[in-house]
Design goal:
The complex is a heterodimer of chains A (about 300) and B (about 350). With about 300 residues, chain A is of the alpha/beta class. Chain A contains 14 helices and 8 strands. Helices cover about 35% and strands about 25% of the residues of chain B. Chain B has 12 helices and 14 strands. Classes of the chains: A alpha/beta (about 300), B alpha/beta (about 350).
Chain lengths: ~300, ~350
């Protein structure tokens, strides 16, 4: 059953899966004041949490909420997505992949624990432990300010999830999971290839608790196909908490179509996300989603 | 049909192929990822000159063999297909080696070579081999739809075309160690020039002006082109526009029956009269979610990358020449050379 409604951050960080044209418009609108208004309206509409990417503008937003809007800050659960991939791609495009890695290392080095963990991982020739140390270093500034009990899960961005499947890296998953568990956190996955992911984890005794994936009536970003994803949701929904994203197919359908479709899968879906730079729209969206989908709604 | 690659894709996906990838950077990882998601263990070998990359990746990835030397990999693995995803200045050497080693099917990332002369020399070296170039914009469905609508005459007579490709990749001073001396026009502009050749049959250079801003090479280009049908085409190429989070390619066509605008993300058509190909309407607006419903079968990065891979696999299966074979993109590379030469005048 749907138990949570989550505010997404795509509109806040210039991401639109409809068109870049829309993302550019939203970026102009999404100043700090607007983002705070959106969060306020989302909570008023029934949102229970915020799912956001590791991105410097989100760190700025959360820092602001912590100091100026404790009511909003403490009232939300947090699902952290690791991380905004655009900055990776840009850095790799301009300077090359090795420069990207050096850049990430330089950013992580000031953390004493990273240096220690990275050295141990290098000596033991365990790149998966090295990746876990890097993950921790990237999370650190967020965990420093977020209330620990409100951080529900850390989810790997789809690019990392898809590559884990493509190259068959279960040891990397175990290392990341173990690293987060030591800090009392849960590892989850975002994927656009949900039916492949179902097959992948089924054969490797991996039992992630949180899974985030696009679910919409158009089948947009649902690979291998809409039918295959629906079957995988049916199979996995009992043992994992599935977070449905892109339920509006990037804004190309209206909320009533989304609700009708998600309603058919509600027994298998744990949370639904929505994102906007428009405070009234986000409130309406969450009110509709809540009244039609939430347990007791 | 906008996606012939999707029909029966399982047949050519399931061919008994051994693939290798040269260069495990951003694009090498992307291509390997898509291939292996399409079918497990399609990629058997990777060549990368970085010892650190090889040692790290080989500890992590057990299903692939890693090599530092291309010839050694070719000798030991005898791959059917090789993907080249290294920096452009190494493409000619690597593809030459692959052709010499008689690799039947080669995929090389864009731009295929540093210049037109190198491209012609590779074509000369080819026997019954095939080289496809990673110009994936031709696989973006809105652009395929543009080509289909224009060739069906929906728009009437084309009066003008303006276009751009913009990104915000270089918005601060950068230093690059390569010595090719070419910047955004070769790196990013090749996509746009290739689309203009493919859709509008652009053939002649009318004007060209380059601008250095951050990289010490061309960061922005303004070009004037002409088609075989004497149509004027203007275009801008830049990687220094900070408003563009991701690269965006834009085409705008004014015609006797209306206006058409398209990017990788959408197609918008405004006609003066209703038309059957627009469902008997005057307007048509389609975005990515309208085009990519339940397709492609793998979703990693933009959908056109998977379609590009399926196209290549279908060509391997049928023996057909790829849409973006070296021969089919040779005019685009010739125009790039001419634009650089004209800008120097």
């Amino acid at each position: 059953m749907v138990e949570e409604l989550l505010l997404g951050d795509n509109s806040f960080i210039g991401v639109s899966h409809l068109a870049q044209e829309k993302a550019r418009e939203e970026t102009k609108e999404a100043n700090l004041g607007n983002k705070v208004s959106v969060i306020e309206s989302a909570i008023a509409g029934g949102a229970t949490g915020f799912t956001f990417s590791i991105h410097e503008s989100n760190l700025g937003l959360l820092t602001h909420l912590k100091t100026s809007r404790k009511d909003l800050f403490r009232g939300m659960k947090y699902y952290i997505l690791l991380r905004d991939v655009q900055s990776y791609v840009r850095k790799a495009s301009v300077d090359g992949t090795s420069s990207l890695l050096k850049h990430e290392l330089m950013n992580a080095l000031p953390r004493a624990s990273f240096l220690r963990d990275a050295i141990i991982a290098s000596v033991r020739l365990k790149p998966e432990d090295f990746a876990a140390a890097l993950l921790e270093a990237q999370l650190a500034p967020y965990l420093k300010i977020l209330p620990k009990e409100n951080v529900i899960a850390v989810l790997l961005h789809e690019v990392f999830t898809e590559l884990i499947m493509a190259f068959d890296l279960p040891n990397l998953v175990r290392s990341l999971d173990s690293s987060l568990q030591k800090r009392g956190m849960t590892l989850g996955f975002e994927t656009r290839n949900f039916s492949y992911f179902y097959e992948y984890i089924s054969g490797r005794e991996l039992r992630p608790e949180y899974l985030m994936t696009p679910i919409n009536p158009l089948g947009y970003q649902m690979a291998q196909s809409k039918d295959a994803v629906e079957k995988a949701v049916d199979c996995l929904g009992e043992r994992a908490k599935i977070i449905a994203i892109n339920v509006l197919a990037s804004g190309s359908i209206d909320i009533s179509q989304a609700v009708k479709y998600i309603g058919g899968l509600r027994d298998r879906i744990y949370a639904v996300t929505s994102s906007s730079t428009n405070p009234s729209r986000i409130r309406r969206n969450f009110q509709t989603l809540g009244s039609k989908l939430l347990v007791g709604g | 049909m906008l996606m012939p690659e999707i029909t029966d894709y399982q047949v050519y996906r399931d061919q008994d192929l051994k693939c290798a990838v040269v260069g495990l950077g951003k694009m090498g990882i992307l291509h390997s990822g898509i291939l292996n998601l399409l079918r497990s263990n399609l990629v058997r070998a990777v060549v990368d000159k970085s010892y650190l990359t090889r040692i790290g990746a080989s500890r992590l990835i057990k299903s692939v063999k890693f090599y530092g030397d291309l010839d050694k990999m070719l000798h030991r693995e005898s791959p059917d297909v090789v993907y080249v995803a290294t920096p452009v200045q190494s493409h000619w050497d690597i593809v030459s080696s692959l052709l010499k080693a008689n690799v039947g099917w080669i995929f090389v990332e864009k731009p295929p070579t540093v210049n037109y002369a190198q491209l012609l020399s590779l074509i000369d070296k080819m026997t019954d081999q095939t080289v496809m170039v990673g110009l994936q914009k031709r696989f973006a469905l809105p652009f395929r739809h543009v080509k289909m609508l224009l060739s069906s005459g929906v728009m009437g007579e084309i009066e003008g075309v303006s276009a751009y490709i913009r990104s915000g990749d270089v918005v601060a001073p950068v230093w690059r160690s390569d010595t090719i001396g070419r910047g955004v026009l070769l790196d990013l502009g090749v996509h746009l020039i290739d689309l203009l050749v493919w859709i509008f049959d652009v053939k002649f250079v009318e004007g060209s002006r380059s601008q250095r801003i951050y990289s010490g090479r061309d960061d922005r280009f303004e070009v004037g082109l002409r088609t075989t049908g004497d149509l004027q085409v203007t275009a801008e190429v830049t990687w220094s526009n900070s408003e563009y989070r991701w690269p965006e390619t834009y085409l705008e066509v004014t015609a006797t029956r209306g206006l058409l605008r398209a990017t990788e993300d959408y197609l918008k058509v405004d006609l003066t009269e209703k038309h059957a190909l627009l469902n008997h309407r005057r307007k048509l607006v389609l975005y990515k979610p309208h085009y990519y419903q339940s397709v492609p079968p793998v979703n990693l990065a933009d959908p056109e990358y998977t379609l590009e891979h399926l196209h290549f696999l279908s060509c391997i299966y049928s023996g057909a020449e790829p849409l973006t074979s070296l021969r089919n993109v040779s005019r685009s590379m010739n125009l790039i050379d001419e634009l650089y030469a004209k800008a120097k005048q």
